[in-house]
Design goal:
single chain, alpha/beta, six-stranded mixed beta sheet, four-stranded antiparallel beta sheet, 10 strands, 26% strand
Amino acid sequence: MLTLTGVTVYYGAIRALDGVDLTVEAGEIVAMIGANGAGKSTTISCISGLVRARSGSVWFDGEDVEGLATHERVERGICQSPEGRRVFANLSVNENLDLGAYIHHRQRSRVEADRERVFGLFPRLKERSRQPAGTLSGGEQQMLAIGRALMGRPRLLMLDEPSLGLAPVLVRQIFEIVRDINRQGVTILLVEQNAYQALHVASRAYVLETGRVVMAGPANELLHDRQVREAYLGE
């Protein structure tokens, strides 16, 4: 479904990605782990078109999308839940979800069906559907950020640090919902500092360091790799 080949990204004179190769097959959950500044969020932003690659290619479903604008990539099924949630604080939960469905906004029955699907995954959002998003708890805002991305009907859902700042009980809940979304047929690319949870939920994983892929393979193998356990699991 997704292929990155030799992707290099610069911020001014700083090289953020250095020849990244990555693939995601349809139906997978693929994780990217690594320390802060490793290039994980930049990789997702490059796939979304929020930053441009200086060299290399991004292919989605057999099409080179590097020349497409972000909204055109969303139309093709690439949707992102950003790091830090970034909900629209002054808008209600329903209004945030409506913005996620903007490309389908003329198809009201479709939008309402997608809203009910989101409420099925996150019942708490239904209870707070008229409440301003800025008054939600951190966990509820994370649910809303994921729900908003789902309103775009993604074929590839990219989740950037979904467990950041959440209590352990909410972390477990979020990752169970990630599994549920994947079971519903959505392919997932997961950026996550909680390497233990990420490697448990994913089928394959990549380890990034200073903008480069330094390890890749089945998530279960990386979970038991000595270097990974020492560097990212605190052993």
